[in-house]
Amino acid sequence: MSLKGGGLSFGHRALWQGLDLDIRPGEFLAVLGANGSGKSSLLKVLLGLLPLSEGRLERHVPREKLGYVPQQKNFAPDTALRARDLVALGVDGHRWGIRRDRRRVHQVVDGLLEKVGALDYARVPVGQLSGGEQQRLRIAQAMASDPQVLLCDEPLLSLDPRHQNVVSALVNQRCREAGTAVVFVTHELNPVLPYVDRVLYLAQGRFRIGTPEEVMNTETLSELYQGHVEVVRSHDRLLVSGIPEQIHHEQEEVD
Ligand SMILES: Nc1ncnc2c1ncn2[C@@H]1O[C@H](COP(=O)(O)OP(=O)(O)OP(=O)(O)O)[C@@H](O)[C@H]1O
After folding, report:
1. pTM of this structure
2. Under the GO molecular function aspect, what terms does this record hold (predicted)?
3. In the predicted model, is pLDDT for residue 247 greater than 70?
């Protein structure tokens, strides 16, 4: 999947422009940037839900082979669907009604529930689960579709540190073992830092792309933000400070 000279604007506001991006099989790409920098919109462009304002998207992956973990929205408390049925929808959601091989579906679902640590609540209605528990199910559901490309929008949100590591390692395993291309939007780079091949950093209408070492350093981020941003490496963690407030929205006049 690739973007050639991709640009996305809303009104007069350009979120990003001139983006050439190849998303390669078996690659783990992290997408970083402040609130409103256009990370979720980028995933929607890759999914074909949002048209580019300029440039071209080349996608040679069938829709059902695109796994998507949307930005977290909790299920309504009265949602009766059980946890394991939600994950099963990932396996055969696009063939709903003709579930031919029940035993295989059960095996896949059980395996994924175990991997995300959700076996204990497999039969609980999803509306009764905590935000983090629901989030782990969404990740299992996206994995269940056997994706060639996995697009994750802040999948670590509301997870405790242990489950952040569990989910990061699981996504990495899928990437390495099945050659799935991963696009991982996150505000928390550290849990995925050992796995990330490249970082796309969006800021104030500009971007940088490269290895974590190339992008996550004082010089590059200071240039990107046009101010002093300090990046310190401590053991295997990155600490970033001095990121300026995000530019404000242009108010559109409404009569
Ligand atoms: N359909 C739309 N029409 C107008 N503006 C939009 C639309 N969709 C998104 N935007 C604006 O584009 C900007 C980028 O939104 P996006 O959700 O991509 O940001 P993000 O980087 O994912 O932010 P966050 O970290 O807060 O999730 C936001 O300021 C948002 O208001």
Report:
1. 0.90
2. ATP binding
3. no
